[in-house]
Structures are given as C-alpha cells and as structure tokens.
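Q: Start with the shorter request: fold the first protein.
A: Done. Sequence, then structure:
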Amino acid sequence: MLTLHALQQSRAFRIVWLLELLECEYKLVSYPRNPETLLAPETLKTVHPLGKSPILEDGELVLTESTVIAEYLARNYGKHNLLPEYNTPAYWQCRRWADYAESSLMPLMLLSLVFKRVETAPMPFFAKPVARKISSNVKSSFIHPQTELHLAHINETLAKQQWLLGNHITLADVMMSFPIQAAGKRFDLAAYSHILRYIGDMEHNPAYRRAVERSGKPVL
C-alpha cells in the first residue's frame, strides 16, 4: 500500500487530493508542525534524511518533492487521464504548469508571507518604521507587480476553458491549487473572475472534499 507522510496544513495537501482523484488506497501519516518554528518535526527524518514533506513510500521506493511524487502517482496509478500522453504538446503544457506552480508563482506567495511577518514581528520601536518601509517598497516595486502579471496570465488562460489544460482536471490543476488559493487569501482577486471561478471549481470537486475530510484544509 502507498504511504504518504505529510506535514499538516501544508502544500502536501495536493498529494492527498491527487490520491483521492486517482482513487488509490493509501495510508496517510500526518505530522504536526513545531509550534515555535512552524517547521516539520524531527521525526520526519526517520523516513527521509531531509525531513521534508511530502514523502511517498511505495514498497522499497521512497520519493520526495511534490512534482516528482505527483507525476509518479499519475503515471503509475492514473485511472482518470490526469497526465497527458508522454511527449505530446499537452504533456509538456501539463509539466510546464506543474513546474510553474513551484518555480514562479509559489515563491511570490512565500515572499508576500515573509514580508507580512516582517511588518508584524517584534523588534525595537526605532526599527519598526525602517522594517515597514523596506517591506512596503519590496511589495510595491516587486511582489505586487509580478503577482499581477502572473494572475493576469492565469486568468486569461482560464477565460478559455474550465481547467488549465481544457475541460477536464489534470495534474496541472492539482499542482497549481495551493499557490492560486494562497493568492486568493493574500491578494484581491476581484479583477480575476475566471480565477475565482476556478478556485470554486477546485473546492467543490468531490475528491478535493474527501481530501479535506481526511487531512484537513491546508493553511494558505
């Protein structure tokens, strides 16, 4: 049986959703975050030396990295055409969106979170105006313009179709789910109606709801 080791309230939720979409039998081992650091507990290192989530065990095979785990599952356990045929244009577009989620969109969401915490972090009173000024400058000159650029691109894609690759859900949508939902929590999406519809479609997906019941909602 497949075993998924997942940090609670994390991006590993995407793999739980994928397993539900694929209708796989699997064991879910959840790990609470360290209450002080919010990082994974040391016990995860007993599964893999890096102690990072998610980790997938399939017999003797142990895999880390979300995009690798996701493609492995979709390629070997797929029943619902979540991964297009290898080396077709659709396959490479699917891979492009999966990598885009981790390499282009998610870093902006993390930067947004980091600078939000900078503004509220405890520090000497004389340092607060400086920290807030730096944070404001970074957000206005880089984070917000770049995020708007990416959101416009995604919204334009979704104006043409229900899901990123067409009219059925694929691995691309699973991988994009966390960063696009995070964008919905941190930015005003009123101008991106197709993204708002897309998020609603995700969250009403039956497999998504089963994943929430099994592992809880991710914290965005």
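Q: Next, the second protein, separately.
A: Sequence, then structure:
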Amino acid sequence: MSIRSSIMTTTAALGTALMLAAPVAAQDNGTVEQTIELEPGWNAVYMNVDPVDRDIRRVFSGVPVASVWRWIPDEAGSDFVRDPSEGLDNIEGWFAWFPEPRPEAFLSNLFRIDANQAYLIELEGNETREIVVEGRPRFQRINWETDSFTLTGLSIDPQAPPTFAEFFERSSSHQGQPIYQLDPDGSWHEVNPATTAINDGEAYWVRTQGSSRFQGKMNLVLDSGDSLEFSAALTENLMVLRNRSDQDGTFLIRRVGGDTMPLAWQREDPETGEASWPTLRNQLVLEAPAGEDVQVTLAILREQFTSSRMEQVIEVTDEQGQRILLHIGGNTIQPLIGPATQSIQALRDGDTQETVSYAGLWVGDIEVDAVSESQQAGVTPTPTRDSFVQRVIVHVDSSGQARLLKDVIQMWEDGTTAPSAFDPDFDEVDEPGRYVLLTDKNLISLYSGAALRGGRSVGLRYSTIGYDFEGTEQDLSGGFGPGEQLNTTLVTEPDFPTNPFLHRYHPDHDNLDAQFLNFEKEAYQVSRDMRLIFTEEDPLGRRPPGWGDSIVGGVYEGSLTGLHRNTIFTSGIFRMRRISAIPVLNQ
C-alpha cells in the first residue's frame, strides 16, 4: 500500500510500500487530493482529508475492494494486535463495509470515510489500484489510548520523514514501546523504530505506556474547532505553534495551491510593540525557539474577496520532519450582492461590480472630543482636554435600512435532526440551528441561550446608556457604509423616564401639581441630533484588517437642544464593528 502526490519531485522506496505526500491543491475551494495506491492484499491507510463525498460506496467505486475495516472501540483501546488475515468480524470494536454483490454485504455497518481515521483495506486481484480522494484537511489531535495500542497515522513531512525513534524522541510514554506495520499478507510485524521511517498516510498500531498527550515536536493549538474558520463573523484568528524540541528552529507556513484567499498576518515590532498587517505571501518563515510558543494571528481581507466564500489550505512544517495541514475558510458578512440589486443607472453605465452588504448588528463607540461654548452661544465645537465615550448600537437589515438600538440580545434557535441517509439508526442535522437577535424581550422564552455562563445557557446582551428613545428601535435616515452618512433626532419628552429635568421625588421637577395629583409640565423637552459620517479611511489612522467591511468609522457630529438655553454642538469620531451578520430582528 502506498500514497503519493504530485507536489513531490522525488520519491523514496520504503520496503514494499512507497509513501509520498498525499495532499495537493486540487481547486480554489480549499480542497486537496489524497492519492492512495492500494497494493493487492491488505493495506493500512490513514485518511488525511475529509472526502467531499464521504459515502464509502463512492470513495471505492470501481475498485475491487473485498472489505474496508475501521477500529472504533467503545472504551479501552486494544490490548493486543490481531492480524486481519485471521478475521476481524468476531472482535468487538471493528466496523466493516462489504461491497455489493458480496454475500457479506448485508453485514456492513461502516458507511462513510472520515478524516484522521485509520482504515484496513483488502484489495482483490494482482494489480495495484489508485484512488484519488478530494477533501478538506481537518485538524485533530491524536487521542492516545492509555496503556494500550492506538491505530493511527502520524503528521509528518513526506519530503523529510523522520524515523519513529526521532518522532517519539520527546515522549517517554512511547519510547521503547512496540509499533506494528501491516504487511500485504494481512499480518502485522514489529518495526525497528531507529531505522524505520514513518510513511505519510499509513496507519500503525502504536502502544502507549501510561497516558500521553504527545503530538510530536511541533504542536498546533487553535482557539476552537478543527480549522481556521472565519465564517461571517471573525476578522482575526489565532493559532499557536509550539516547538517542543530541545533545538531552536523555524516554522514554515506555506499556502498550498497559491495565494488564492486574501489573508494578512500580524507582525509586531519588537522595539515599539506596534502591529502591522502585511499580506500573507506563499511562504512565511517564523523563528521557533526551543520549548517556546509562537503566536500567529491571521486576518481575513474581505474587501479583496472575489466571491461570497473563499477557502485555502496551508501547510505548516518544521525542521524535525513534521507537517500539519490546515484548512482556512471565510465568507463575506453577507453574500455579495449581484447586478440584480444595483441601480438602473449603474447597469446602464455598464457597472456590474459586486458590492458587499452591511446587513447585521454593529456595536461601537462614539468618542466626543469637542464641545461648543454654550455660554457664548457658540456653534463651533471647541476641542476638550479629555474626551468621553458613548456606546452606539446599529442594526442594518437586508434592504440597507439602519436602525438605532439601545438593547439587543442574541439567542439561539435549536435545529432539527432526521435519520441519516448513510445509516438510519443515527440522526443527522436536517435543519441547522441559528442565532437570532431580539429587541422584544417577550420572545426570549422561545429560544435558548447563545453562550454558557456559570454552567448555564444565557443570551448575549448588548446595551447602551448613551441615549434613549421610545420603543426598542429608531429608524436612521441615510446610508450605511464608507462615503455615506446616517442621521436621526432623538426627542426626550418632559414625561420620559430618562429626561434629565425629571425628578420623581422633587416637588419642582416631578411634573405634578402642588397636590401631587395631576400632571403639570415642569421638565423641559430635550432633543438630540446625531450624525454619523462614514469615511473611507480609519479616523484613528490605523486601518486594521476588515476595515470597510467588518469595521467602519468616521466623523461624529451632534447637537443638544433644550438642555441649555443655547444649543450645544459636539463632534468627534466613531468606530463600529460588526458582531453579527443576522439581517433581521425578532425572528
């Protein structure tokens, strides 16, 4: 059994099997190809990718496979290694697929192929067969069975494969422990760790003494998930690379298939601490001091997207012969709006350039740094010694209508499941769950929380005390986005609870007569004009990743009438970040 790939220009024979780099760039959709050469007899294969089509029947379509086996133990691992040639059907933990029209086909209980799993494949006939599997790599740490054997492959660089002794050099739980390799005749033989190189894409039985979390001399830690998924919400994503060897080295980050996805990486000046965001080229070399962590923050450049979703695979290697494949994906906050939604004039002018929707929930700050001299009836704001900040919350729907909010809660609506098409005994997602944004608190009981706090499911609340108005929403006039501006007037009536002149327990400011029985206007009406003028450039002069797409800002102008005998004028800057792409409220 062997695995090969076209990204290599040299090959090396290792016994009867030839193991080369399996994954290569297949398309611009973030998939790679794993090419598997099956030799007649038994093969131990480790899948590096999640097939685009996981149906085991289609993965092995047209190939004379007698059976495919996967080890899925209930609890403990294997205390001994059983040769597949002696039969696996009577051993608990083995799941198998037998193709039609074999008489054992009705016994099949294995229906799909998954990444990061080992499979024993029996090939009929006398010829080597080749299978090309297109899929996405999915990062997953090896879960070593305690005081037992684990059937697994290892993440190694096929261009510089280490021996087993070199790979496990820093793991006391694996040193001196037996490792078994499968022969085509269906028998396992113990390898010599000092002289046997690890083959990429091949599975082995590896014994662990005690417990272990060892993953190699290079470790990868992600904030969450099994890939760097930006989806529609994130602009930045952090991964941590750990050099667990005793030697200083480097990490090489390489794009597989070219720089198809617009990405930047954070580079920090060691002297000033200032961060810059250069474009991530095809290769990036990072120093990796022995025993230390290297933090790598990648950012998505949505303004450079050419489609609603873009994906990329990157390869991370070290100088110890290890390699990790990582999938990166992201999409515009909302799907790109095509020509059908553009203006007639734009179409007449031949402008069919796609634009980005700004629909979603935006939360940010208004920083007021200039106020007019009200005593002198000034109309020009004067810079203040210190600024003050107010939170602002805006929601934009799919039509572009912006609304000012003062309180919104993000909740979760559970999805539904249905029997799996692969195995009716198991359920799979039919209608996925989704987040919802609520300004109507009467709807909260219909949904579940969007986060865990103290072991309880709770909603995520965003609120502000920077302004107030009747109801839960206030329509804004104008457009949202660079080159546009939003305007509104907030009127605080004398009887409004947050009117600054209204004091419930002061007889001269409670809006009641002398007997405290009838309404008598004592507070003043206050109105506030707000204007958000969006700019193409960052008002702070930094232009972080996501500027103009998931981060916007500009100049703030405002006025207050009724608070003083003269109107007070204010100005400053504002910045907002999109924290949700949900285009509707309360549904």
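Q: Describe the second briefly.
A: The radius of gyration is 31 Å. The longest strand covers residues 382-396.
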